[in-house]
Amino acid sequence: MIKDNPLFAAYLAEKLGADELSITSDWQNTEGWSMETFSLGLKYFKEAKLVESEIILRREPIGGLLEPYDVSVEYKVLSALQDTGIAVPKTYWYEPDPAVFERAFYAMEKIDGDVFTVSPRAEEEGFPDDVQRAGLADDFMSNIIALHTCDWKSRGLDFLGVPGPGKGSALAQVEYWEKVIDRTGYRNHPLAVLSTNWLKVNAPENEKVVVVHGDYRTGNYIAKDNRIKAILDWEMVHLGDPHEDLAYIFISVWRSPPPYNRISHLVAEEEFIKRYETETGIEVDRKKLGYYDVMIAYKVIGIAFTAAYSFTTKVNPDVRPGVFGQTMDKYLALLAQALNTQLES
After folding, report:
1. pTM score > 0.90 for this model?
2. Alpha-carbon torsion 40, 42, 46, 50, what sign?
3. I need a surface site. Which of 164, 202, 233, 282 has the fewest CB within 10 A?
């Protein structure tokens, strides 16, 4: 238990400039399937005043779905995006020394609110109602627009790796996920080989490099009072083509079922595109969206392969990578479907 560790309490006191600090509660969040997330309740004195607060720690796991992990990337991105109009939590510090808390981690503010789990039956089960939808849809659109229009150069986000011109955005992602798949031992899987080659040959040109979140959807934000208070899960953030985020946002798995067919159960696709194009100046290219449909499915098989590899090779008490690894056949089928759609078009 973290709260029973006096050395860690002393470490926190030093970081916070606090006196008589005690950890009153600790809880490991179970929603996410990647980074480990801990909520800590703290009580201490600062400048002779009693403070009671909560903080969040995000720690690299032993192994998981998105290896190799580097929690410093998420910390640097969230720190750089402060005061941009994007709903991100305040960051406090990054700790690389594994001796402090077993593995590298960073600390950030605790945001109160709800994380909604999306399923095809979400609206039947009561989320979202009309009032929730109005506020959340507005913020859902405004946050991705703010992300795709932020000046990443002045924010120092070029450390993410600036893709080359033209086809560089797409090819950088193909090469990254090709290496991920190679590490897992599935490089020669016939569908992986076919998809890798198709993605390289058909890589589209890109004139607008933006910060790509990589996992933007309902389920990855904290909501309160029908507004989005914080965007979560930045493990796949990178610089690239905005169509990559858009294709992910539009995929069927995050939509409400017909007749509504709302993206992330919030907003009609055409309404989203109209506002997005107006406020970003980026014209949405349907052909590019089709390419990134295949790319996203390719990434997901990389994640499934990594999950299976991690579960079988790492001493990890978390069984969820093993569970996700068992979805390999499902996601290979989705990749085949996405690729066939493009081959037939």
Report:
1. yes
2. positive
3. 164
